[in-house]
Design goal:
two-stranded antiparallel ribbon, 6 helices, globular
């Protein structure tokens, strides 16, 4: 937004620009949020694996722990960001009327995403995936697209929602 404001200051005759979407209209997909949520669980698993290695070089162990903690934080924030954009920009009155749980669901995703950043409880990560799965089901249902639950093809092999395209 800062960049746009600075550009408008330099263009004579243009006082204000407005947009209703963060991204081009109709290009929304909960897939990146799901991948990020699965990544949170994977980072938690790796952190627990590293913590269990008592004979590892302490500096190397600390380095690996730090990197995985940082990635867990980034991925949890990515979940929150992706969901916020879809919830805030895509869901309008018709979708909300059909799926009134969407506000509470988005809020719960924000709360569990924060819990995943605060600690490394795998149950929180699994809950995050579960909530984002439900969000994805609702999102695809608003587009009349069927979904299926399948284990993701990479660790942690947790079940995620895929659209049937």
């Amino acid at each position: 937004m800062f960049f746009i404001r600075n550009m408008l200051d330099r263009i004579p005759g243009i006082e204000e620009a407005q947009a209703h979407c963060d991204i081009p209209c109709k290009i929304y997909d909960p897939g990146p949020a799901l991948i990020a949520a699965v990544s949170v669980v994977r980072m938690m698993d790796i952190l627990h694996e590293i913590a269990a290695k008592v004979d590892a070089d302490p500096v190397s162990r600390h380095n690996t722990m730090s990197r995985n903690i940082a990635m867990k934080e980034i991925e949890a924030e990515k979940v929150k960001s992706e969901i916020r954009v879809i919830w805030g920009d895509y869901f309008k009155a018709p979708q909300i009327e059909k799926y009134p749980e969407i506000h509470d669901l988005a809020h719960r995703i924000m709360m569990v995403g924060s819990a995943c950043k605060q600690d490394v409880h795998r149950a929180d990560g699994e809950k995050l995936v579960e909530l984002v799965n439900r969000f994805a089901e609702i999102f695809w249902a608003t587009k009349d697209i069927e979904t299926v639950h399948r284990p993701c093809p990479y660790p942690p092999l947790i079940e995620v929602v895929y659209p049937v395209l």
